Amino acid sequence: MQSFSLGQNQISILPGRRPDAPVIYLPSVKDEGACISRYLLESGCPDLTLISISDLSWNHDMAPWDCPAVFPKGDPFTGGADAYIHQLTEQILPEAERRIGSEPVWRGIAGYSLAGLFAIYTLYHTDLFSRAASMSGSLWFPGFSEYMESHSLAVRPDCIYLSLGKKEHKTRNPLMKTVAHHTEKAFSWFQSQNIHVTFEWNEGGHFDHPDQRTAAGIQWIVEQH
């Protein structure tokens, strides 16, 4: 593993066996790359390079537009995803792949929670990622379902993985309780566009086994032909 800093971000590269192995970019709250890589190795995942990006301004970088805080003591969302996509594609990606030393056979983007929302949003703004995995994605985000159905994808993805915990929508929070509805709606929408998509239900709530769920989503998109 090698690491470097770019701006406030810390980037960790967990290289595959082949220089041209598929590359998965994983924005995360903290650097979970090594843990997720271990799960992938233990489960026999095909060869890939995992690039974990941490130290994000989470509610800014991952949010597509402004939204009030969803909890009384929480922070608002300040819509910095467009700017962060530019930083990811114009700065982080070129530097990471320069260090790898070879262009990958394909690139994917994955994320958990708000980063899962960001992974799907990214497909509408750049053609650099041909596969996406959104685990327990924040697809409850106000206006996002409407955005998906009224805007064109920048790339027709090879495949999309969606997952959700069975208990995630069982909450009194009026936004969070819509997550199952909106995730199912996203699944149906991508199906209607003849995009190869799957939707997996997991046991538990939002905070149960995030690293294992993330590894499962990454493995699924890597295994698709």
Automatic annotation (TrEMBL):
Classification via SUPFAM superfamilies: alpha/beta-Hydrolases
Name of this chain's protein: Alpha/beta hydrolase
Species whose genome carries this gene: Sellimonas catena
